[in-house]
Amino acid sequence: MPRVVVFDEFGGPDVMHVVEEPVVEPAAGEVRIRIEAFAVNPLDLMMRSGASPAPIPLPHARLGVEGTGVVDALGPEVAGLEVGDPVILAAIPDASVRGSYAEFTTVPASRVVARPAGLGITEAAAIWVAYSTAYGALVEKAGMRPGDHVLVTAASGGVGRAAMQIANQLGAVPIAVTRHAAKTDELLAAGAAAVVAGDRGDIAEAVRDHTGGSGADIVLDVVMGPGQQDLLKAARPGGALVAAGFLDPRPTPFPSGPPLTIFSYRSFEHTLDAVVVKRMAAFLNAGVSLGALRPAIDKVFALDDVVAAHRRLEQGLHAGRKIVVAVPD
Length: 329
Ligand SMILES: NC(=O)c1ccc[n+]([C@@H]2O[C@H](COP(=O)([O-])OP(=O)(O)OC[C@H]3O[C@@H](n4cnc5c(N)ncnc54)[C@H](OP(=O)(O)O)[C@@H]3O)[C@@H](O)[C@H]2O)c1
What we know:
alpha/beta; Rossmann fold; seven-stranded mixed beta sheet; 15 strands; 29% helix; globular; binds NADP nicotinamide-adenine-dinucleotide phosphate
């Protein structure tokens, strides 16, 4: 019988266990996906530990907001998809019910996109959330254009690496922010045009040096906290800051400094919108086929080792690369 990862109480990685259950028949407008691999997302850790802001009904909660597989069955009234099509899961807002940590899941047909040709299963499992978030925040929200200087926080992370690749694909200039100067070479290799390090002096001054004195046109802040004040000073007056993450749990002071447009970004505002999803998928397809977009993979685990996969992310051993779990056929 097909296997699925569930948890019955909130807690550490050990609360997850694998159970066997029959597949669900897709209802009208739905497709059943045979999952080939899923990526572990920081949101999964929040859901499992009870820290997710969205209510998670227990027991028997599922997990998983990203993954890839093939269409296994079509419900009535589904057009444009065939059994056997390779797809990526584009949005699972109800992951506690339809999560990707399983051999099968059933989702509305509108929530899958074709898997880009030339992308392996492991990378396909890891691409959508980080790249759709970075694309949505930078392109759809902040209107990034060629030549823009883009300050990318947590640049060594999943969203940060995606943001730098997307900026390069569009001819913008990504400036990476890290807390540790020791990561400079790694970030330059990952696509940064320049790197500014929190442990190497004033961020705003370093950004002005790299932008001919003008400051960054766009700041992508996935860290927040008190450090946001330095990012605001690093931006060009009239530029934009997109707040899209919250890696720093400390409070974020009310933004002050030069006049900027401040956006708050949650990817579901786009990944549940079929028109934007079509643009995102087309952009990712183009970037993958050009070789411009490719997620960095840390390690691939087996389904039975999902607890170890969570531990690795929790301990920060992934160094910002994606952890993937391969699901046996
Ligand atoms: N808006 C949305 O819809 C959306 C979608 C996806 C993700 N997110 C959010 O975006 C954020 C980034 O996600 P991700 O998957 O890219 O994370 P990630 O891969 O885990 O990011 C890891 C990197 O973040 C930096 N970092 C970690 N903790 C930090 C801290 N306290 N202060 C500063 N930097 C820190 C580190 O870089 P250095 O050591 O080099 O500084 C680390 O290498 C998360 O908060 C996530 O929830 C939001």
